[in-house]
Amino acid sequence: MSRGDEALRQGAAWLDLDGRGRIVARGRDRARLLHAITSNEVKKMVPGDSCYAFLLNPQGRIQADLQLLCLADHFLIDTEPELREKVHQLIRRYIIADQVELEDVTERIASVGVEGPAAPSLHLPLGEYTTATFTVTGQPGYRIYCAAEAKPELVRQLEGAGAVAASAADARLVRMENGKPRYGEDIRDTSLPQETQQMHAVSFNKGCYLGQEIVERIRALGQVHKKLERFELEGSEPPAPGTKVKIEGGEAEVTSAVFSPHLGKVIALGYVRR
Questions:
Q1: How many Cα atoms sit within 13 Å of 269 on the Cβ side?
Q2: What is the DSSP string of 153-168?
Q3: What does pTM read for this prediction?
Q4: In 3D, which of 136, 257, 14 has the Cα closest to residue 4?
Q5: For 77-126, how does the pLDDT look when each residue is reduced to its tens digit (9 = 90+)?
Q6: How many angstroms separate the Cα of 190 from the Cα of each of 45, 79, 183?
Q7: Which of residues 174, 207, 238 is at a domain's end?
Q8: Per-residue model confidence as pLDDT tens digits over 11-32
Q9: Does one domain contain both 52 and 143?
């Protein structure tokens, strides 16, 4: 096991998240627009609040997921690297008469994750930083945003406080051990919210939004035919995405898998038919 994944499990690690997309939404109608096109409650957010949300199409399928941070005069939208352009275009498509300006700040604003059981008690460096309670791995922790030029000093201070550098592979391993799905691997553009079991991304009290009719219909029916779950497989060879495997109670289609030296078995995420 690497020092990075050990730190994520037992201590505190820092993650370079500059590959993720960062988009700022400004303008007086920003909350109204984001409320109308995302699955979570946005209008009631106040500066410092954050949430996880889906962008659905009218058929209720998840076109993207995003993390939203409310600040005094704008929202910061944090996306998976490959969703950076797509999210920008999806939001822009729905700006009609709204006073909303979008700006991609990925190159200008750096992003560092601090994750692991000791992360919340790690002494936060001093400086002009913005924080949010987002994590990649599902471990306790937070995300720090700062000007790109301030990042080396931020990392130096984090390492001085005891945080260990963890790689993307370390983060993926711990994320999957925690059963936390990722858009593009486990959550697809054909997935319905209830299939993913990530219902913290959905508000059932917010009123009308894009794709809501389908989400409400599924809730009324009370079921979907498959659900995204974490399961363990014997052996050391992770099956390829799309592989069908038999697990207790049904058949599963693997979406992602990794061998965990820590657990001595393969951890997989996939859609289980019941």
A1: 23
A2: HHHHHHHHTT-EE--H
A3: 0.95
A4: 14
A5: 999 999 999 999 999 999 998 999 999 999 999 999 999 999 999 887 77
A6: 29, 18, 11
A7: 174
A8: 999 999 999 999 999 999 999 9
A9: yes
